[in-house]
Amino acid sequence: MRNYQSEKQLVLNYYQELDTSSKSNITKVMERYLDENYIWRGFHPFNEQSSAKAVSELFWQPLRH
């Protein structure tokens, strides 16, 4: 039975890098981990976004001070 430890570690690494990156580096981190066909379905007013760049600029970057 597979326990998915490598996949879990990948997700943890992604969020660790996202959490510790500078505001200007968020897009690069996301693009390193996410597929070019990435679709993010957020709640209003963010709605559906179809790129890491869009999610970075509309959602994650504004959360940084």
What is this entry, summarized?
The relative contact order is 0.15. The protein has helices at residues 5-20, 26-33, 52-63, and strands at 40-41, 48-49. The chain has 65 residues and is mostly helical.
Report mean pLDDT, rounded to a whole number: 96
The major pleated sheet works out as: 2 strands, antiparallel
Strand order of the main beta sheet, please? 1-2
Q: What share of the residues lie within helices?
A: 55-70%
**Overall geometric form:** globular
C-alpha Rg (nearest Å): 13 Å
Q: Tell me the fraction of residues in β-strands, as a range.
A: 5-15%
Weakly predicted, low-confidence segments: none
The overall number of domains is 1
CA distance, first residue to last residue: 44 Å
Protein name: SnoaL-like domain-containing protein
Organism: marine metagenome
Give a description of the structure.
This protein is mainly alpha-helical and 65 residues long. It has one domain. Helices cover 55% and strands 6% of the residues. Strands 1-2 form a two-stranded antiparallel ribbon. A hairpin with a 6-residue loop joins β1 and β2. α2 packs across α3. The radius of gyration is 13 Å and the shape is globular. The chain starts with a helix and ends with a helix. The model has no long low-confidence stretch (mean pLDDT 96).
